[in-house]
Amino acid sequence: MTMCDTLYIVVPCYNEEEVLPETARRLGDKLRGLMAAGKISPKSRVLFVNDGSRDGTWGVISRLHAADPLFSGVDLSRNRGHQNALLAGLMTARDRCDMAVSMDADLQDDVDAVDAMLEKYSEGCDIVYGVRSSRKKDTFFKRVTAEGFYRVMNFLGAETVFNHADYRLMSRRALDGLAEFREVNLFLRGIVPMIGYIVGTVEYERGERFAGESKYPLKKMLSFAMEGITSLSTKPIRYITLLGFLIFLVSLLMLVYSIVRWAHGDTIVGWASLICSVWAIGGLILLSLGVIGEYIGKIYLETKARPRFLIREILEDGNGKAD
Ligand code: UDP
Ligand code: MG
User: Fold this and answer.
1) What is the CATH number of the domain that holds 135?
2) Which atom of ligand 1 is nearest to the CA of 85?
3) Is residue 177 situated within a structural domain?
4) Residue of 55, 82, 208, 213 to mutate, ligand 1, most atoms within 8 A of C-beta
5) What is the H or E stretch that residue 33 is in?
6) Measured in Å, how far apart are the chain's first and last C-alpha atoms?
7) Does the record carry Acetylation as a key word (predicted)?
8) In terms of residue numbers, what domain contains 270?
């Protein structure tokens, strides 16, 4: 790392007016400290992305920017979700910085881990993952569901970094790589490992949300998990084939068994077995169609190639661009 590498900290914000002043204070202190130590260039910025908030988030960002050019902002045309907002921030930062750190607005990620990330960057890493060393502060429910999710992802062969959310450093080269991935169904945690280059990890303790409520209620979390699985792995379709084959085998065995019994003059009667198997198979067929439909829906959306975000306004001081 040369003395003048520019760092952008990208923070997606959705209805975060309560936390933003504190987030800005801590990130501002961090950047100023790093600048004073000569570790990053004075062109480094905190880039807040307003993801179509319904509260005064954009107003807070504008005021922060007016008070200190260290803070810049991107205002999206509407709410596009965490992943798209993050992408919008990273793509905006791409031609302005040498490296970008993405983090949530709620201060759950330890800001001090940035130092360790920069250290790894200076050792040549292109991507440095922030990995939670413990989830003590998360609710029991969140811990169990998150754990289950990573296990399912691994089982399905999708490469994700265990206990890593979207707190990571990416070099300019890695950001350029990310720009090449044009999928509309965006699941960054799955895409970033596909970029490759030199990778490192940094451990940190994940704290509690500083203020406000989680923007990921159960329903959103489930659809996020579904998104992750279906956009990274086609194994569920293969398991359906396997399931169909197994059921066919079982039915063959039952057929042979009934014929043998019949040959011995003992015809099997049974309404219950019949209706149960019809319903069971019917259920499985619908389930399978649903899974396949999920993929077809993905194909449908991908072929449309709609824009993933639209930017309404960028707030930055004139000389924000890196050369
Ligand atoms: N977020 C966003 N758009 C959304 C929902 C969330 O930009 O539609 C941001 C949010 O402001 C926060 C980050 O994504 O910075 C993570 O959200 P949150 O902390 O609520 O999720 P949790 O930590 O509970 O999983
Ligand atoms: Mg959070």
Assistant:
1) 3.90.550.10
2) 7
3) yes
4) 82
5) helix 20-36
6) 16
7) no
8) 235-304
- State pTM to two decimals: 0.80
Residues 191 and 50 occupy one common structural domain: yes
Shared domain for 155 and 245, answered yes or no, is: no
* Pocket lining: 17 vs ligand 1, CB cutoff 6 Å: no
Radius of gyration from C-alpha coordinates of the chain? 25
The complex's ipTM works out to: 0.94
Is the Cβ atom of 75 under 6 angstroms away from ligand 1?
no
Structure tokens at 67: 């008070």
Distances (CA, A) of 253 to 175, 282, 322: 55, 20, 70
Q: Tell me: the pLDDT tens digits for 126-150?
A: 999 999 887 666 778 878 888 888 8
Q: Are 213 and 190 in contact (CB under 8 A)?
A: no
Rounded Cα–Cα distance for residues 176 and 14 (Å): 26
Burial 114-152 (b: 16+ CB within 10 A, else e): bebbbebbeeebbbbbbbbeebeebeeeeeeebeebbee
- Does residue 282 lie in a domain region? yes
Instruction: Identify the residue whose tokens are 């439909």.
Output: 293
The answer as to whether 226 is a domain residue is: no
Separation of CA 103 and ligand 2 centre (Å): 9
Are 141 and 259 contained in the same domain? Answer: no
Residues 167-174 have a mean pLDDT of: 95
Sequential DSSP letters for 52-102: S-SSSHHHHHHHHHHH-TTEEEEEESS---HHHHHHHHHHHHHTT-SEEEE
